[in-house]
Each structure stands twice: as C-alpha cells, then as structure tokens.
C-alpha cells in the first residue's frame, strides 16, 4: 500500500491493528504517524487511549504491555513507537504480538533510515495482519514533479523557475522543501501562483544568483552573467559550496551529452530521456547547439578535476571561491 492509499483509508476510518512504517525517507513516516496521532482518536480520548513511546527509552516488554491493554471507554487505543530502530531485536520481540494483534489496538511502528529484514517472519506477518509501508528517498529527477504536486495538493500553483530554485537550493530533502513551502503558503492567498520573487523574498534564495541561473548563463555562454553569479558564490560560500555547484553542473552537462548521443531527437523522447519539465526543453536544446559533444566531454572532465581539487587532491592553497572561478573560466573558454 502506498502513501496516498494509506492516508485515504485513514481518512475513511479504515484502520489496521499494525502499521510498520520503515525506510530511508523520514518525511512520509512522520506524516502518516502524525496523522494517526492527531486524527484517529478525539482529543478527549487521547489522554487515556494514546501512548507514544521511543525506541531508545523503552523496552519490548513495556511496549507489549501497553499494546495488550484494552481501550478505556473507546473503540480503539493508539500506540506509536517512534525511533523503533533503536529498540534491540524488535523483530523477534514483537513477532508473537504481530501474529495475533489486539483488534482494538492500533500499533504504529516507525522504523526510520533503514528497513526491516523482508526475509524474516516478522515482515511477512506484519504484511498479513496490517500495513507495511516502505518510505523511499525521492531522487533528484523526481523532486521537481513532487514539488509541483505538493503545491497542487495545497491548492497552489508554482512557476517552473521557482520550482528549479527550490530544488537546486534545498536538494531532495523533502522535509525541508515541504517546511519552506508551508511557511510560504501562510503568506500567500490560496489558489495563487508561487513565483521566483516569492521564493527570494520569503525563503531567502536569490532569484538571480543561484545554481539554476548559473547553469542557464553557461548554457547561453553569457560570460558576464556567469562571472557575476560565481563572484556572488565566492562572497557567500556557506550558501553556495563548490560541491553543490559541481554536482548541479555535472547533471546539466550530462544531459547535454545525452541530447547529442540520442538517436531519437523528438521532443517527447528527449524530455523523457532527460527527466526534465517541458518548460525547460528549449533551453537545453539551445545549449546543446552551443556546446559540441567534444566540448561537453571536456567540461565533464573539468568538473571531475575540480571535484578532486575541492577535496584537497592536487590543490594546496586555492580557496573554494578561487576554484569555482577557475572552473567556470575553463568551462567558458
């Protein structure tokens, strides 16, 4: 069962006796467990029938004792175990309960940053008796559509350049992205469209001096603009580390290389191949005309060279600001 189906069932009051929420992405685990904590029981019933425990502060015996209690003057009790990965031998200790859970208890096990062994009986029994959800990391190529869908779910639109600014600045940490968007949405009317100026004013990301604008300047071979941006990066190294610049430019020029190497040059085919939004297609095509395949390969080599230098290999005294300026000069010239 996926994230949306779980929430839909919870909203319909379709409950299961066991929820195992596990995986590398804590955002979805927190959203599901928080929904259960705030919505399954009326507020008046929570003091008697809702218990939240933490793996590092409890034992399996304590958890089982609580889970086996009957609710007081209510249909259900809710028991949430947070940080379950810190409870030793959890799969063995809870197996007998998961095989025969109490129907009046909703037990939620939040197992973050790794997954329970799917080969073990605990996983199979939990899947049979309740819900097992694996929360997987959002990859960089999934982040832009995720941001767009998140805004849409909150009754907002967001302009593609604003999406790119958020994605480049915050990366695939969707907890941070959602938090920043939630704060921004408090300030904007529902059904409005989020623009780059809104991101700059309220989140503090410059709409003119960011990695997204740098790659556009390089794509257009706009030497003046690229140098202005890289000088800004040098003056603000904490917000614009060289590793982030290199990673973004590597993906950018790798896409240009894919355009050159692709046999099918149709628009739809290239959009799928590059994993980009249609809005950015023309920018990539124009950039591909400005950089030959040989030049793109040489630039990727430059990026690798400066990635090593940024880690101290082949570099004794150059600052990150100097390295970024040198790197951009070599790319453009």
Describe the protein in words:
The protein is α/β, with parallel strands linked by helices. The protein has three domains: 3-135, Rossmann fold (3-Layer(aba) Sandwich), CATH 3.40.50; 140-203, Helicase, Ruva Protein, domain 3; 211-332, Zinc Finger, Delta Prime, domain 3 (Up-down Bundle). It contains 18 helices and seven strands. It has helices spanning 3-11, 26-39, 43-49, 60-67, 90-93, 95-99, 121-129, 140-153, 160-170, 174-187, 196-203, 211-219, 223-235, 242-261, 267-274, 281-290, 293-310, 320-332; strands at residues 18-23, 50-54, 77-82, 105-112, 131-135, 157-158, 193-194. The strands form two sheets. Strands 2-3-4-1-5 form a five-stranded parallel sheet, with helices on both faces. Strands 6-7 form a two-stranded parallel sheet. β2, α4 (60-67) and β3 (77-82) form a beta-alpha-beta unit. α17 (293-310) packs antiparallel against α18.
Short description:
The protein is 58% helix and 10% strand. With 333 residues, the protein is an alpha/beta fold. The radius of gyration is 25 Å and the shape is elongated.
List keywords for this structure.
two-stranded parallel ribbon, 18 helices, Rossmann fold, elongated, 333 residues, 5-stranded parallel β-sheet, 7 strands, 3 domains, alpha/beta, Zinc Finger, Delta Prime, domain 3, 58% helix, 10% strand, Helicase, Ruva Protein, domain 3
């Amino acid at each position: 069962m996926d994230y949306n189906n779980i929430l839909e069932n919870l909203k319909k009051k379709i409950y299961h006796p066991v929820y195992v929420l596990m995986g590398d992405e804590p955002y979805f685990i927190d959203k599901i467990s928080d929904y259960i904590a705030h919505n399954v029981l009326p507020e008046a019933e929570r003091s008697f029938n809702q218990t939240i425990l933490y793996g590092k502060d409890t034992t399996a015996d304590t958890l089982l004792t609580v889970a086996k209690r009957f609710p007081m003057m209510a249909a259900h009790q809710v028991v949430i175990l947070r940080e379950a990965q810190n409870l030793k031998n959890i799969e063995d200790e809870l197996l007998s309960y998961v095989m025969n859970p109490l129907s009046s208890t909703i037990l939620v096990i939040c197992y973050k940053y790794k997954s329970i062994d799917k080969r073990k009986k605990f996983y199979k029994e939990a899947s049979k008796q309740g819900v097992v959800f694996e929360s997987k990391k959002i990859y960089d190529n999934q982040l832009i559509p995720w941001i767009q869908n998140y805004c849409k779910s909150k009754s907002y639109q967001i302009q593609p350049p604003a999406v790119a600014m958020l994605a480049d600045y915050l990366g695939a940490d969707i907890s941070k992205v959602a938090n920043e968007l939630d704060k921004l949405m408090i300030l904007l009317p529902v059904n409005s469209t989020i623009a780059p100026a809104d991101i700059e004013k309220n989140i503090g990301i410059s709409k003119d001096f960011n990695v997204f604008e740098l790659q556009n300047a390089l794509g257009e071979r706009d030497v003046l603009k690229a140098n202005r941006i890289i000088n800004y990066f040098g003056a603000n190294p904490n917000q614009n580390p060289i590793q982030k610049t290199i990673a973004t430019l590597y993906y950018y020029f790798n896409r240009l290389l894919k355009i050159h190497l692709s046999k099918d040059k149709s628009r739809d085919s290239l959009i799928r191949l590059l994993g980009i939004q249609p809005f950015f297609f023309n920018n990539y095509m124009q950039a591909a005309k400005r950089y030959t395949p040989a030049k793109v390969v040489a630039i990727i080599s430059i990026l690798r060279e400066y990635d090593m230098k940024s880690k101290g290999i082949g570099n004794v005294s150059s600052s990150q600001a100097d390295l970024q300026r040198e790197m951009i000069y070599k790319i453009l010239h």
